[in-house]
């Protein structure tokens, strides 16, 4: 009877022609349950045959060599095994010849050859076990590969199947690096119904440990309930792995975002520091080196203005914009009269709102009047743009807020500038400037 104890890896009711190796735990558990029922039916048939031929109702022996009683008994025993082997052997498309051989020895002219039937079944079972439990997997280390190879050799060389499976199981327990594997395998082997198997899964995968965080406890309790609903093992484990992976990926993503924000802040700090140093250097150079420029009023008769002189007249807004990164440079005048005379043209040329025709005050150049210097409608630049070395000048806070979405779509989007700020960097004249009325 060698092989019947461990032929539970056959898969009745499943198409072996489409089987892949190795089988999953769910598949093996299903096979074991199906095999156990088939084995009980076989033993019941054999017991019934033995009881009948041991009873007074059985026909008497007619003597050798052609005893009808013995032939009939042997035929009925062979039929029981034949039905069992036909239904439970792992027949695949590659095993058609063995299945034909089983039919031949069962229908032998001299009567069923039971010993040969056992041998054929053993051969098919050994090959199936070798393909299943000895299949290599990506995570196999040297120890696992070694005992799988040894198991395969034992099956090929005809070693007793029970001894071979025992060696394989003991090797699994010996080399397993997962705590609790031995207890899990033993409890699973002892399980006789879905409730007991579910409890074995819960004890292995969902056992609450003292050091578990509240999140880990919730995770384990959640999947313990899933196991209790008899959801297949493979589906539950797959869902557990996916959720754990997604959670870890979410943590990594949040950490990466935090690092990016820190890097952005650090980069902005470095740029601001560099701009400050550049400004200080320009001021220093201006103080040390005489510089001569023309008055911005075209009709001015003077050839040049010495801007190294302590008393110079320049546009405060343009000076501020230069400090913020605009490349146009400062605008100078030789006198207050020329500054006032040039004011209207200068405003139109240098202080245009970046929103153009969409400006809240278009066609006017901003709110004008006292709003340029009081706290109600001060001009300024976009904070997000300034960090990325883009100068976006707005005529007023009101215009900025009213056109913020359009500005972000037109400027931020194409330059990958994050949308963080909701207020302007307000215009602020230099400390050493005196604003003339």
TrEMBL record:
Residue ranges of coiled coil? 25-52
Keywords for this protein: Coiled coil
What is the recorded name of this protein? Uncharacterized protein
Gene source species: Hymenoscyphus albidus
Q: Where is the organism placed in the taxonomic lineage, from the top? A: Eukaryota, Fungi, Dikarya, Ascomycota, Pezizomycotina
